[in-house]
Design brief:
This protein is an alpha+beta fold. The chain is built from four helices and five strands, in the order E-H-H-E-E-E-H-E-H.
Length: about 160
């Protein structure tokens, strides 16, 4: 199934499908109710600082979504954040979440550094982090220096 899926930028015609996908996957108790609001989603797809992707099967059935929010935080931070990741239960086990994360990481990495933060209110939400563990160095601990030391060597990783 995963090979047949099309991953592309979101279009306005996808808005009701995105809201329905979040509703179906996360149910009534999802704390971020805005994901069910078609007007909120529509504003997001037209936001110049958001690149939102969807995955659909050849018939157009929406099976996943992910986005990268560019320039989060202060304007001079130049940091992006990945979010809005959701995969329909019918597409689980096909690495669709990983494929979506790779797509938005490629987009974000071509623009600026990327903030990696795992926030999940769903049992499947943590698996996609493994896509990044192999390619991203561990985050610096508060006690690590972020510049090379006197010898030009970086401090050891924790």
């Amino acid at each position: 199934m995963a090979e047949e899926l099309i991953i592309r930028l979101v279009a306005e015609t996808d808005v009701p499908k995105i809201a329905a996908l979040y509703q179906e996957v996360y149910g009534e108790n999802y704390p971020f109710r805005e994901f069910y609001d078609t007007e909120w989603i529509k504003r997001g797809i037209y936001d110049k600082n958001i690149r939102w992707y969807i995955a659909a099967d050849p018939s157009g059935r929406l099976l996943g979504s992910a986005a990268v929010m560019i320039h989060v935080g202060d304007g001079d931070d130049l940091v992006s954040e990945i979010g809005r990741l959701v995969v329909h239960s019918d597409a689980r086990g096909c690495n669709l979440g990983s494929r979506l994360v790779r797509e938005v990481v490629a987009v974000a990495g071509s623009i600026q550094p990327l903030l990696l933060r795992g926030i999940s209110h769903h049992p499947f939400g943590c698996r996609s982090g493994s896509v990044l563990r192999r390619t991203q160095p561990p985050a610096a601990t508060p006690t690590q220096r972020l510049r090379p030391g006197p010898s030009g060597q970086r401090p050891p990783r924790a």
